[in-house]
Amino acid sequence: QVQLVESGGGLVQAGESLRLSCAASGRTFGSYVMGWFRQAPGKEREFVAAISKSGGSTNYADSVKGRFTITRDNAKNTVYLQMSSLKPEDTAIYYCAADEPVFYSDRYTSRYSYEYDYWGQGTQVTVSS
């Protein structure tokens, strides 16, 4: 069992940057694949980024590649999403998720929401033009 709490959301102008944090509580944070998803009003939840349990491998949606960076600090039980060059279309509620793996490699990542076992309550990111 793991509990996730997101923070760092807010209102920014297009072109600015924002860093989201996700604090996790659990016995073995380093055993989980971590991911970020987002959901805009009237749209379905979509994949944003994921990072392997050791932090050695990452995966990004095409829409954010080159602008967003996912990192993790297993000693602090925290995963981050650094967002740069923000656009109005990035406006959404951002969710942190944890995937408890079964026989995953050290470099495994997941792009699919149904594979994740635990979810935070989300943090709002609004980008004005």
Write the topology of this structure.
Elements: E1 3-7, E2 10-13, E3 18-25, E4 33-39, E5 46-51, E6 58-60, E7 68-73, E8 78-83, E9 92-99, E10 118-119, E11 123-128
Structural commentary:
The chain contains no helices and 11 strands. With 129 residues, it is mainly β. A hairpin with a 6-residue loop joins β5 (46-51) and β6.
**Could you tell me the strand content as a percent range?**
over 45%
How many strand units? 11
- The separation of the N and C termini measures 40 Å
Uncertain runs are none
Structural features:
11 strands, 7-stranded mixed beta sheet, 47% strand, 0% helix, 129 residues, mainly beta, 4-stranded antiparallel beta sheet
Concise synopsis of the structure shown:
With 129 residues, the protein is mainly β. It has strands at residues 3-7, 10-13, 18-25, 33-39, 46-51, 58-60, 68-73, 78-83, 92-99, 118-119, 123-128.
